[in-house]
Amino acid sequence: MTGDTAPTSRAAWAATQGRLRRLLDQLTTAEKIALLHQYQPAIDRLGLPAFRTGTEALHGLAWLGEATVFPQAIGLASSWDPELVETVGNAVADEVRGFHHKDPSRGSLNVWAPVVNPLRDPRWGRNEEGYSEDPWLTAIMGTAYASGLRGGHPEYLKTAPTLKHFLGYNNETDRDTTSSNLPPRVLREYELPAYQRPIATGAAVAVMAAYNLVNGRPAHLTPLINQELRRWSEQPLVVVSDAEAPSNLVDPQHYVDDHPAAHAAALRAGLDSFTDHGEDSQVTIGRLTEAYERGLLDESDLDRAVSRLLQLRIRLGELDPDADPYASITEQVINCPEHQQLARHAARRGIVLLTHRGLLPLRRDRDRTVAVIGPLADTLHTDWYSGTLPYQVTVRDGLAQRLGAEAVRWCEGVDRVAFRVRGTDHYLLAAESPGSAPIAAGPAGAGNASHLDLFDWGGGSCALRAAANQAHLRVNEAAELVNDSAGPGEWVVRETFRLVEKAGGEVALRHLATGRYLRADPDGQVRVDAADLNDATGLMVELVESAAATAAQLAAEADVAVVVLGNHPMVNGRETEDRTDLNLPAAQEALLKAVHTANPNTVLVVTSSYPYALGWAAENLPAVLWSAHGGQEHGHALAEVLLGEAEPVGRLTQTWYRSAADLPDLLDYDIIGTDATYLYYRGEPVYPFGHGLSYTTFGYEQLALSASEVAADGTVTVSVEVVNTGDRPGEEVVQLYTHQLRSRVKQPLRALRGFARVRLDPGERTTVTLQLAARDLAFWDVTRGRFTVESARHRIMVGRSATDPALSAVLTVRGEQIPARPPQLAAIDYDEAHGVTICDQHPVDGDAIRAVEPAAWLEFRDVELASQPRRLRLRAANPTNAPATVTLRRDDPLAGELLATATVPVTPDRHSYVDLTVESAVPAPEPADLYLVFDDPGTIVAELGLEAA
């Protein structure tokens, strides 16, 4: 497997440390503080040039002009090909180096990629940035990409990869103020593993902290930075902030009283580089200087962070240009032919065949004419972290180059409408010039000035394009509606609207970025400045041309219809905006159904950043394919797969659910308690994790284990014969899953443990072997605060996806029996809970539990009791306005035997605790299930225990 990098030699390490000590000794305190901002100044007297952290390189060099645009990260991962992902990372690193050679001031060699947040919920607005809902697969792909970015030299880095975003970051809604509450098992088994492998292998050398809070504490202050991240590698790990996040600690998070104290707390928690206030470093310098002068920081705090930053720069070869093995890479590598071919190969490998009932691959002798239909059929869209496309090959282009332009018929599949002002003969009129003349209201006239193409991007978001000049409408800073945009884009998207119903069949046009409504004056002036719906001008929507009717006619005249639907990466599901549902945009689904009615030989191609609910399509269409937004070579890749020039070899790395009703609350991160992700989901998805079909078929035979039993530190070899039972060559992804049959705790229904790719000709068979280490079956034991391999039987499953095991066997693991837990308990280590949330025990460290509703409770299973007089000891806080009651019961939270009652007095704040000791009834000596019951919301408990009187 990829990702194992060459270690730094001891001699090189010693030399670097000596060099760092000399540099630190010569730096003044003011210079050290200045180096802690993203934009580090030059220190000429020490030969230190200016430096900054952060070049975006998620799936190509971004934000710096034209560069090779590879498929989105979720598309790269769908290849299930770590070697390919590493190769792409290596190519991206070359382009970063090439741009840095051209312009060192703009092209930092510290790259902010990859994103290794597990894709817990497909509604997350940044879904396309991650790799998988499985933490192990995420770690494999993140390690592969980071390995490519860092290069293979033992001492020097090609680029310095930065993992994003630590920790528990999967929602955009209120992302700066919401807390991702992670029970210990979710933290240890689901969230942390995605980071551990890239760091432990040396692939990643930096981490970016996340915007959100974790268990009530801002992620930029989490003790996990030092307690976990930095213990996984002997190499220094640089931690950078997300943009403006250090300021967020004061407002909007209100976690620290003032900015100097907040910056000091972040530095002490392990942050090294402050990304705040753009290029203006003086704000950060001023705050850190004041913190130092107030005694909130000392020199050692500065030295720790500065030494990590300087070592990163040394490893990048910045201070040794003559020895830097990557210094000769120039801008000639950017979008070179080799990278174009790699982009095409990567796009092709990530395409997933979701449904296949014989229509594909298309044949030139049978499918002579193809209708290519849909809003994504003849355009490519890029996301916020994409590079600038140097060229683009659309699906229409790709098919036309192979079948001939005369064989490919095209229509965009969007309604053309006109908006008439209520009670008048005036319409919204667009300028024909390419400039930015404001939209006006007036008589329609003979031209097409009133015609607008209506793009439905789902979630109530739409975009409008003027037929007069093919430019999108947007609202400018003067609140004018103008048609001069290439389409939705930029951080603030000014090209999206919502049609809001009014009385009498009228609609109002609401601008999503500003929340304002369109208002048309009697003199024809149009402005988007109405504050509420009552002040908005009512508009009648008149259909000029029906997308469904036009597309159906085109499809009926063709042999095959290829409908290309999906999302716009800058609309309805992007950074700062989560989705509210999983549905295809209503207009797109209507278009698809109309085309299928006109021509049953309809192929659906979904190009999207995330999964959709495709129940109707899965049940009714002969073929459905999915691809992420595939970059500049997207059209070539899809055409090759559609025509059978290449096999569809991609596999899903996320579950495709039937609806959002199958998902828990977006802000609930407890995947175990909510039965979330493929690991715990008990329903039947439309397409499961790991799913992907081929143009051929495969059979599985003779599953065998090298041993029927294995010790906790042992390894078993799993072998299975795979045979191509079809009539075409093809590739299969053989997937290994396990399920622990009995356990003290709730176990995943299935968990991915390994996979292998095999390519077979028709009739060919091969034996696939996969290694399964018993230690990988460990789970986090809350009773002892460590991972454990339990003595148990495990079902070993091999097959095509998480819910399609072809064969299974049983393996017995000789581990340990978890003993009864001692009666001294941390509240966070509960087994089950109701009506509570996790919160921070102290601003610096520790977790606690807070009741959020009456009669909330915590269960502690199998607590060891002794037959002696006892007292209940409680460490609690009560930041309410009245004393609160907490009770301890046995076996049931409501009707169980009452063991003790404690009254928690009012405390000054949520971080002020009291230690209480009350008499407890003497329970029977055998282990028992104990319930701590909160009578009143707001009570916080950190620790409890039964002790001898």
TrEMBL record:
Domain of life, source organism: Bacteria
Ranges for domain Fibronectin type III-like: 732-802
Gene Ontology terms: biological process: arabinan catabolic process; xylan catabolic process
Record key words, sorted: Hydrolase, Signal
InterPro entries in the record: Actin-crosslinking, BXL, CBM6, Fn3-like, Galactose-bd-like_sf, GH, Glyco_hydro_3_C, Glyco_hydro_3_C_sf
Database matches in Pfam families: CBM_6 (PF03422), Fn3-like (PF14310), Glyco_hydro_3 (PF00933), Glyco_hydro_3_C (PF01915)
GO molecular function, one term: alpha-L-arabinofuranosidase activity
Purpose: Catalyzes the hydrolysis of a non-reducing terminal alpha-L-arabinopyranosidic linkage in ginsenoside Rb2 (alpha-L-arabinopyranosyl-(1->6)-alpha-D-glucopyranosyl) to release alpha-D-glucopyranosyl (Rd). It is not able to hydrolyze alpha-L-arabinofuranosyl-(1->6)-alpha-D-glucopyranosyl (Rc).
Family: Belongs to the glycosyl hydrolase 3 family.
Official protein name in the record: Exo-alpha-(1->6)-L-arabinopyranosidase
